[in-house]
Amino acid sequence: MNSDRLPKISLEEAYEHRDDAARILASEDELAASAAGGGVTPEYYRPIHEKLAEFDEVRLGSMDAAGIEHQVLSLTAPGVQIITDGARATAEARRQNDFLAEQIARYPDRYSGFAAVALQEPGNAVKELRRAVTELGFKGVLINGYTNDGDPEHGRYLDAPAYHPFWEALCELDVPLYLHPRPALPGGLALYQDHPEMKGATWGFGTETAAHTVRMLLGGHFDRFPTAKLILGHMGEALPALLWRTQNMFDLNPFDKKIKKTLPEYFADNIWITTSGNFSDHALINAMLTVGADHILFSVDYPYSENATAAEWIEKTPISELDRRKIAHGNARELFAL
Q1: Total structural domains in the chain?
Q2: Looking at the domain assignment, is residue 8 inside a domain?
Q3: What residues are annotated to the active site?
Q4: pLDDT tens across 205-216, in order?
Q5: What single-letter DSSP state applies at residue 179?
Q6: pTM metric for this prediction
């Protein structure tokens, strides 16, 4: 570890099971399909896949050079949410969590984990959540957007009544849910026809995840689960910049929806955001003015973004040293009891 660097904890850091990465890298067709699903090119995705399944010298060396003391690892998108068969999704979540626990056990001071859970079978998802947190020591769960439910063209969002027992368990265990992006359902992809560059992280990921979050907010989800903890990446998927207008237009046009608080109040009580993949001074300062430094967490989005780039940025961005330390590591230590 480079002791001259500002200490950092990062928590949107992806992995892939070694067997899955080897299968994808061995087939140009598999690699092309995986890249297309994420809205990226195969040329971009090949070196990413090589890093996703590596937990030793390359990952740890990159962390050390950047002053990242600890990573919270999670299964790369789309994870188990894309599996349409419930029993297979449940089995895959358990397989992934067992594999991740093995990697954490090798470097327990450097890695923690967010669990994969298969909401295709909500009851089994609750059981796997409890096992991952109480037996494997995971810090929460990461869900990749909506969950496919028997049909690749249909998905259920996190406010579905079928998931209420899952949210009750999250609140009881007092662990957060990290909402990670995935492309919109097929019916929402017409906008990106002939523009594959827009489907993934370049644009579509953020708008899909922001809409998912606003759906929960305006639907009273956090009134129903007032102690729930939600984490959003990429500086809040642009929501800090949109909160005032969204609140204002909702006040004028609530239709049949009633909520107990304002959107900024829900962010203050229930939502944390991370810097993953969005190393912008302007975006950070806007987020600090909107949601406050106490609910912002440093993250990289490794290996989709580079540790060195993120570390250099957070060490130099024009904010107070108190806020810099909170964001770099202090808030994460408090939220996850690290």
Answers
A1: 1
A2: no
A3: 301
A4: 999 999 999 999
A5: E
A6: 0.97
